[in-house]
Amino acid sequence: MLANLFKSSKLSSFNGGVHPPQHKLESTRAPISVLTIKNAQQVFVLPLRQHVGKVSKLLVNVGDHVLKGQLLANADGQMSAAVHAPTSGTIVSVQDQLIPHPSGLPDIAITLQADGEDRWVEHHAMDYRSVSKREVLERLREGGVVGLGGATFPSHVKLREEAKHPVDTLILNGAECEPFITCDDLLMRERAEEIVRGIEIMQYLLNTKECIIGIEDNKPEAAQAMRDAASKSQILIAVVVVPTVYPSGGARQLIKILTGKEAPSGKRSTDIGIQCFNVATAYTVHRLVNHGEPVISRIVTVTGKVARPGNYDVPLGLAVGELVALAGGAVENTEYIMGGPMMGFTLPSNHVPVVKAMNCIIVGKPEIFPEPPPAMPCIRCARCADACPVSLQPQELYWFAKSDNFEKARDYKLFDCIECGCCTYVCPSNIPLVQYYRYAKSEIIALDKAKQAADIARERNEFRLHRIEREKQERAQKHAQKAAGAKTESAKLEAAPADAATKAEEAKKAALAAAIERAKVQKAEIAPKNTEEVSPQIQADIAAIEARRAEAGLAEVAPQDENN
Amino acid sequence: MIGLAVLLGMVLGYAALKFKVDGDPLVARIDAILPQTQCGQCGFPGCKPYATAIANGEADINQCPPGGDAGVHALADLLGVEYKPLNAENGVPKPKSVAVIDENICIGCTLCIQACPVDAILGAAKHMHTVIASECTGCELCLAPCPVDCIAMLPIAESPDNWKWKYPVFEIKVVNS
């Protein structure tokens, strides 16, 4: 009912857009083929940065044996996502390896060698309605759920219910507007029910009133499958078919088409009460919450110069070359595009691993997309402005970016550019406009970072100078205090000595006197008392003894003894 | 008329007191352009003293190698003077680097800690020192005082984190006529 309402009257549209050749039929003929791992020597490379935000924290060591679905690296903080083992095996190395990134620079990655058993770690479903929402979000964070539309933004951050920005509309992006890519189309055709289960979880977490799935009208089977699945759901989900125009799958563009609302420049869609997810993300949310399976595989469209173009459910970490070989494509002497022809980039090597952001591999870039003729000067035809889905002035931005006039480029809202490539596509002079915008954006970001660093350095330098000054003052103060303290002390000493000396002498004299007194007393005590005041009888005895001693010739000796 | 003049005079006088600007705004604006490396290559003991010297007309605008050509242009724009190429006497611009201490050789003398203008070196006497890479401005002031030459300046390597999209260039193909 709601769907019909939208279909009939409410559909809006955005400015511009283009209609490049679709090339979707090639890869939609076969159903999704699920790749299973039986080869015991199969090697998987798992970069620790497969998402927007901080690099994940490594939890395993080289030589560890791990099971399928085991957590290898956990999310570092809120803006991060976890990495899991795609199969059971042994950790062979943790080192810098080439990753699918336009820079072609290596980044830290885990290498896992399969043991061929493909044995699952213990995992279990979660009854998300019986636990707190925080627990569900924590599971999403640990389960490595990120936006699979290509931006790989950690989903748990987007699914937090925030009082400041209540979300009343949940939009599921099934537009898949870029040519060649069909992974979401096939996913919706074959696993519609599971996507709807995932949407139910998202709706529960965000507590939204409205839920809309937007699908381009070039995918009637997918739209039908989603409608059937949505009608069986307990919540009201509207499936809305939108006209095919590139880039209707851009989040802001799809929001504009479905609701007519536009998030202002520099603001998020949540500021106007809308949150948008890719349908494949909803599928992974369902697998994680209702089955306990973390994100260890994704559906990749392999198309272009291959014998069996189609969609493959690939374990993450498999080398792209091996995947292409399975699809019957050349591995050497060719180039691959990751993503679509409008926004994708050429892979630095054909042996980089499949990552969460990889939705499509186009094999044979040189043959399918020959080098464009050399760029001619801009003739100011403004066709790019007509095509720009964000209503920017691409020709102006081009001038500013080309002449390094970054401030002006910022003023002309360079950062609202979604790099969709419509301007480059329509440019009659073949100017690679988006390349200029990307250049200007990364230069501005680098300048802003340098400015921040300079501000911090200034603050630290000023603080240091302030600290040195303070320390100097403190030292001076201490010195002054010490000097003052010493003065008072010496003054006291000068005043005191006289009486101190007399006191000491008096004490000495007193002690001396006391000692003399004691000696006198002692002397008196030890003097023999039997020689004086004796009775006449004893006196007579003494005289008689003395007389006898004199007679014996001792008289002379005795007085001598007495004297001594 | 006189009344009006007195009134306006009072308003201006009040405004001069009320909205008094602390410090020299020109120095602050010049300082904002300087890269805050605090390296002293300009001949002044830091970015702020150099900014003050420029504001007072005591120094030229082309004495800051870390600021590079873009810095000289920005200063020329701000001060309304002619652009001059960097003065080679003050040094040449180098790729941004950070100091790294070889911790096996460090003897813990604390001389580098005292030299660092932004307190980016951590350590204590007779204990190994280390550089806080995120705070290091790459000024090289710690190199000279080190008695055992254990500090090296390493250019910041390009990684997917700080990688920048390049300016589009087109190969010119040789056409045989």
Provide an overview of this structure.
The complex is a heterodimer of chains A (564) and B (177). Residues 1-8 and 557-564 of chain A have low confidence and may be disordered. The N and C termini of chain A lie far apart (146 Å). In chain A, the strands form four sheets. In chain A, strands 1-14-13-17-15-16 form a six-stranded mixed sheet, with helices on both faces. In chain A, strands 2-8-7-4 form a four-stranded antiparallel sheet, with no helix packed on it. In chain A, strand 7 (89-98) and strand 8 (106-114) form a beta hairpin. The longest helix of chain A has 63 residues, at 433-495. Chain A has helices at residues 2-10, 133-142, 155-158, 183-190, 192-206, 220-231, 251-259, 279-291, 320-326, 365-368, 383-387, 394-402, 406-411, 422-426, 433-495, 497-526, 536-551, 557-563, and strands at residues 33-34, 43-47, 57-58, 65-66, 71-74, 83-84, 89-98, 106-114, 169-174, 210-216, 238-242, 274-278, 297-304, 310-315, 336-338, 345-346, 360-363. Among the domains of chain A are: 126-293, Rossmann fold (3-Layer(aba) Sandwich); 377-494, no CATH class. With 564 residues, chain A is an alpha/beta fold. In chain A, helix 5 packs across helix 8 and helix 12 packs across helix 15. Chain A is 41% helix and 15% strand. With 177 residues, chain B is an alpha+beta fold. Chain B folds into two domains: 2-90, Electron transport complex subunit B, putative Fe-S cluster (3-methyladenine DNA Glycosylase II, Chain A, domain 3); 94-157, Alpha-Beta Plaits, CATH 3.30.70. Chain B has five helices and four strands. In chain B, the strands form two sheets. In chain B, strands 1-4 form a two-stranded antiparallel sheet. In chain B, strands 2-3 form a two-stranded antiparallel sheet. In chain B, helix 2 packs across helix 3 (47-55). The radius of gyration of chain B is 24 Å and the shape is extended. Chain A binds chain B through residues 49, 99, 101-103, 105, 107, 374-375, 432, 435-436, 438-439, 441-443, 446, 450, 453-458, 460-465, and chain B through 31, 34-38, 46-48, 117-120, 135, 137, 158-160, 162-168, 170.
